[in-house]
Amino acid sequence: MRPDIAATPLYVLGFGAWAESSQRGSLQGDDWKVYELVVRHFLACLSWDAKGQETRVGLRIGGETFHATGLYIEDMGYLRVYPYERWSDKTLPAYIEGEQLHDFQLRIADGQTQPPDLLNEADLIALMDKFGIGTDATHAEHIEKIKTRQYVGVRDDGRFIPGYLGLALVDGYDAMGNLQLAVFTSQCCC
């Protein structure tokens, strides 16, 4: 992530107290939530990294390959003070490559895959950060521009829905063979 020189970071400068009544110097409601977020983020930045081991297993049954991924958390690190980001243990049994499994159970469930949710503004900003588009100071301007130009519309729940111009743009990128742009644009808007 590129440093954003347009805004300075927030620092904890003093002790905040939560109180149910409106005592002088106490914080309530949203004020307390913002204070707690800033404090926890500050402490997380000073904490050590969380450490974990990811396990991947591939299983071939009847010519089909199935995959499972597990996570073993070795050290919670900054996650101890920052509950807004979560890791959860999902430990897989130890297997040996080429091992044949004799005691297992298969269940086939009828169903259909679901398309991913349409993006909301926070999702789009995260993708813009990931791909280096704009800065924290310009994200809102970029998003407003795609709405004004009708590349996307916004549903009542705040999720973007592709407009005709946005769909045409994706089709155009696809026709030019620029799949990377088409994939990013379709993930953003479709």
Automatic annotation (TrEMBL):
<dbReference type="Pfam" id="PF01131">
    <property type="entry name" value="Topoisom_bac"/>
</dbReference>
<dbReference type="GO" id="GO:0003677">
    <property type="term" value="F:DNA binding"/>
</dbReference>
<dbReference type="GO" id="GO:0006265">
    <property type="term" value="P:DNA topological change"/>
</dbReference>
<dbReference type="GO" id="GO:0006281">
    <property type="term" value="P:DNA repair"/>
</dbReference>
<dbReference type="InterPro" id="IPR003602">
    <property type="entry name" value="Topo_IA_DNA-bd_dom"/>
</dbReference>
<dbReference type="GO" id="GO:0003917">
    <property type="term" value="F:DNA topoisomerase type I (single strand cut, ATP-independent) activity"/>
</dbReference>
<keyword id="KW-0413">Isomerase</keyword>
<dbReference type="InterPro" id="IPR013825">
    <property type="entry name" value="Topo_IA_cen_sub2"/>
</dbReference>
<keyword id="KW-0799">Topoisomerase</keyword>
<dbReference type="InterPro" id="IPR013824">
    <property type="entry name" value="Topo_IA_cen_sub1"/>
</dbReference>
<protein>
    <recommendedName>
        <fullName>DNA topoisomerase</fullName>
        <ecNumber>5.6.2.1</ecNumber>
    </recommendedName>
</protein>
<comment type="similarity">
    <text>Belongs to the type IA topoisomerase family.</text>
</comment>
<dbReference type="InterPro" id="IPR013497">
    <property type="entry name" value="Topo_IA_cen"/>
</dbReference>
<dbReference type="InterPro" id="IPR023405">
    <property type="entry name" value="Topo_IA_core_domain"/>
</dbReference>
<comment type="function">
    <text>Introduces a single-strand break via transesterification at a target site in duplex DNA. Releases the supercoiling and torsional tension of DNA introduced during the DNA replication and transcription by transiently cleaving and rejoining one strand of the DNA duplex. The scissile phosphodiester is attacked by the catalytic tyrosine of the enzyme, resulting in the formation of a DNA-(5'-phosphotyrosyl)-enzyme intermediate and the expulsion of a 3'-OH DNA strand.</text>
</comment>
<feature type="domain" description="Topo IA-type catalytic">
    <location>
        <begin position="1"/>
        <end position="190"/>
    </location>
</feature>
<dbReference type="GO" id="GO:0031422">
    <property type="term" value="C:RecQ family helicase-topoisomerase III complex"/>
</dbReference>
<dbReference type="InterPro" id="IPR000380">
    <property type="entry name" value="Topo_IA"/>
</dbReference>
<dbReference type="GO" id="GO:0005634">
    <property type="term" value="C:nucleus"/>
</dbReference>
<keyword id="KW-0238">DNA-binding</keyword>
<dbReference type="GO" id="GO:0006310">
    <property type="term" value="P:DNA recombination"/>
</dbReference>
